[in-house]
Task: structure prediction
Amino acid sequence: MNIFDVIGPVMIGPSSSHTAGAVRLGNVARSILGEPVLEASIGLHGSFAQTYQGHGSDLALVAGLLGWATDDARIPSSFDHAREAGLSVTFHKENLGELAHPNTVRFRLKGRQGGASVITGASIGGGRVLVTDVDDFPLEFTGDFATLLVMHHDRPGAITLVTGILSSQGINIAQMRVSRKQKGALALMVLETDQPVGDGTIRAISSLPQVEAVRRIQAM
Amino acid sequence: MTEKLSLQYWIAQAEEKNTTFANYCIQNQVEALELTAEEILERMESMLAVMREAVQTGLQGVRSVGGLVGGDASKLDEYLKSKPEKAIGGTVLSKAITMALAVGEANASMGRIVAAPTAGASGVLPSVLFTIAESYHLTDRELAKGLVVAGAIGMVIASRASLSGATGGCQAECGSAAAMAAGAAVDLCSGTPSQVGEAVAMVLKNMLGLVCDPVAGLVEVPCVKRNAGAAAQAIVAAEMALAGIKSAIPVDEVIDAMGNVGGSLPKSLRETALGGLAATPTGRAWSKKLFGHIEE
Result:
């Protein structure tokens, strides 16, 4: 923690958890989809479901899906911009269970290029967020670091190849987690790195035969 | 988890090096952030610019998203301008509470603010800093140093207690903001590092136990007016500390007490909108009117 975690972020009010955090969740969801969003169905759980309109959480989530920052003065009018951009959004209340953080959101996204993704994350206070599920893979990352999601086939050597490419580019891994649904099937690597990951590196990882898809989330 | 920081240790270090608390904190952050002092202060100056705009936004008379607050900063501003002799707290206090309301209202109306430490408590620090800047003719560079002091105090509170209403009640938000503002004020008024610590201790003692009970769960009632109250508390504590008054309980222990009190608060008084003012008949009626349901 440093002084800029206390003094900041610069943001559109009224709530760091319900407004700034909502923008960041939208940002991360867009990055995970990996293309501009065409359709978004947004499920709101707990406190988000109860009070989202009064905090502008709905406007903030859409602003995040449009790729805006937490201090973008257009946030109060994000719905109009979404319409102009051809992004259709619907909201509903969704009970994600007792264990879910009170400020949890589930995005069901469809992209312009035909991609689709279901992303669940929570706004955990002070504008910080925690992504907890991507396409039924349970995981945890905050977006505080540059983050790579690598969907790969669960085979020996896949992890070494990916981390090898990163190390050859001088990129240090701060945290890493791997999860899979079943042995030998598709698995997901979450790599949080100290340095941003460039386009060339992403291409190199994408071209590995073991790798199905790569998504990059910029550090917030 | 987070390493437990000690304000007393930092203060002792600053006293030993015979430097101001601001200069000590800047040096400390230069090492931690791998930035130059110039870069840190420039970033803080850009925060000040946002804070100043937020004051102006609020003074124009805005209306909140939920419709529960707005227009009070401009009401107070006009009252004090038309009858300055009527300011029973003197011009310094009246200016501070006007600006605190203004930023609180700007925040509630989806204006741009600096979370310090949170959005809900974002009016306290700018109101105290800008009021002192007017009285003492301080430059933005000096105020930026005040923000570094405030940030350092907030870091210690975060590591030993909490800065979140959901965890520690309003004492953790408005209380922490007041502590940050009081410490910054003392440093800006040429107080010693020890006096910074005494101010932090005294303001937290005066705000100990304050609950977080937002009506309808919104950052409107009582949040906006609590910013004004917290600004006043910061000035009270800074004044006492600058006069050489000491807290009987050392500052780290006061912060720990604040953390313990926060943990002892029932969940209903930690931002859930289930207790306190939110649970009054009027509070519940607002919730029903706005969202068609009552928080159970």
